Amino acid sequence: xxxxxxxIDIGAQTQAIHGGETPDQQTGASAPNIVMSSxxxxxxxxxxxxxxxxxxxxxxxxxxxxxTVTQLESKLTILEESQACVAFSSGMAASTxxxxxxxxxxxxxxxxxxxxxxxxxxxxxxxxxxxxxVTPVDTSNPEAVEMAIKKQTKMxxxxxxxxxxxxxxxxxxxxxxxxxxxALLAVDSTFATPIATKPLQLGAxxxxxxxxxxxxxxGDAMGGAVMANSEHINLLRNEGxxxxxxxxxxxxxxx
Length: 255
Ligand SMILES: Cc1ncc(COP(=O)(O)O)c(C=O)c1O
Fold this sequence. Notes:
The protein has about 260 residues and is an alpha/beta fold. The protein has a domain at about 80-245 and about 250-255: 3-Layer(aba) Sandwich (Aspartate Aminotransferase, domain 2). The protein has nine helices and seven strands; from the N terminus they run ααβαβαβαβαβαββαα. It has a seven-stranded mixed β-sheet with strand order 1-7-6-5-4-2-3, sandwiched between helices. The two termini are about 20 Å apart. Bound molecules: pyridoxal-5'-phosphate. Pyridoxal-5'-phosphate binds near residues 90 and 118.
């Protein structure tokens, strides 16, 4: 799957419009096209195991990958200055994939005490049922985060600015605390968008967006995305998208 990128020094407005888009190879159409096909004719043998999926796997089934969704993922990769991106059917699907793919029974999660309600309820109700300990903390206070760290802390999840209270967390400070303690920092950056904040540049490991909000911009499509290094994105695509099945509709990606 070719993902041509615009040079990174092109302005954010141009990147937001043209980033990740390439003219259609057959027709030359310069605006993004929609490929709604669920299946693709492939001329080489491909594995149906998610663990064999990589950048060179041809499109074969839209739950794995789809050209229109890839265009959106390439655009978001450029806008967040990340290595890779994977899109989901909703912001909650993206958050669920991160929490369930990186945390296991016995792990400890620190999470901002003010959060979008869906994320807060998922973390406080569902994760403990699976043996994952969860500590809500006012992450706008870095000392409180340090105090909450345990040997088993595997991830710190912050939402900044938070929904609905607009609490602000210092991403770089919390990234240092996370990394000093061998934990990952995940940032729900939905309210900021990459126009205001690029958490990966401040040390975060994973950036989560509800694309349904400002990135979608028109209120007509549900979507979610995670930006991170390729290793983390491959894991999320294998588990969250291919196994859990929360792939984004190409129509929503196009919108
Ligand atoms: C900050 C934030 N994160 C995640 C979500 C969940 O996104 P979605 O509604 O696309 O599932 C929302 C939705 O309101 C949100 O405001």
